[in-house]
Amino acid sequence: MSNATIRADEAAHFGRLAADWWDPKGSSAMLHRLNPVRLGFVRAAIDAHWRGDSRGVRPLAGKTALDVGCGAGLLCEPLARLGGEVTGVDAAAENITVAAAHARGAGLEIAYRHGDLAELGLGRFDLVTALEVIEHVADKAAFVAALKPALAPGGLMVLSTPNRTAASRLLMVEGAERFGLIPRGTHHWDDFITPDELGALLAEAGLAMGTPGGIAWSPGKGLHLSDDLALNYIVTATSA
After folding, report:
1. CA atoms in the 13 A half-sphere facing the CB of 197
2. How far apart are CA 172 and CA 16, in angstroms?
3. pLDDT digits (tens, 9 = 90+) for 112-132
4. Band of residue 187 on the pLDDT scale cut at 50, 70, 90
5. Burial of 28 by CB count in 10 Å (0-12 exposed, 13-18 middle, 19+ buried)?
6. Within a 10 A sphere around the Cβ of 117, how many other Cβ atoms?
7. Does this model's pTM top 0.90?
8. 4.10.230.10, 1.20.1290.10, 3.40.50.150, 3.30.160.70: which CATH number matches 8-239?
9. DSSP string, 116-129
10. Of the candidates 61, 122, 147, 217, which lies 20 to 30 Å from 230 by C-alpha distance?
11. Regarding beta strands 125-131 and 151-162, do their DSSP bridges make them parallel or antiparallel, or are they unpaired?
């Protein structure tokens, strides 16, 4: 992330949540429910991209992975267990402190870095993820442009974000935050981005977006992968 993309107030907001991040019943409870759904998509995308065995337990063995906007490591740790050599980057120093401590406690070797991706000189990675991040940056085009150089030739990128629809305003902002399912101030509906808008930004950066998958909610299934993009969606991107 470049200085043009990081919002100090957003970093501070998530930094204040850092100590509670790993509590599945705490302020990040909704993220704990969302994470397995996102991981299901990521795993399927990894298998499809590298034509791996879907039954294998370490599909990222021998590959490097970068999670941008990693928070306290909720995605980094599963990626490490899938065999990846994982690096996590976040704008909030508090998140990095908590993430590193939790990884040590879990016996996982994950490289965590605090700062701007464009300034850290981390090199290129086979897998680059940025899940629930782009809606929090100041300049979406600059953010995507900063992600592109981090992707190795032949690599895979995965992004997820809320869609800017009437449904997401009602359920994700007014509903979820009002009833305490998501901490107040987490989402700003005007900053949500549609799949068409994201596709255009990726194309401008030289990346081709795959077919978006929806992350929907229903009383019977809870959060689940779906063709319905109204609330949230997740996509792959590769070098065009």
Report:
1. 14
2. 20
3. 999 988 888 899 999 999 999
4. confident
5. buried
6. 26
7. yes
8. 3.40.50.150
9. -HHHH----EEEEE
10. 147
11. parallel
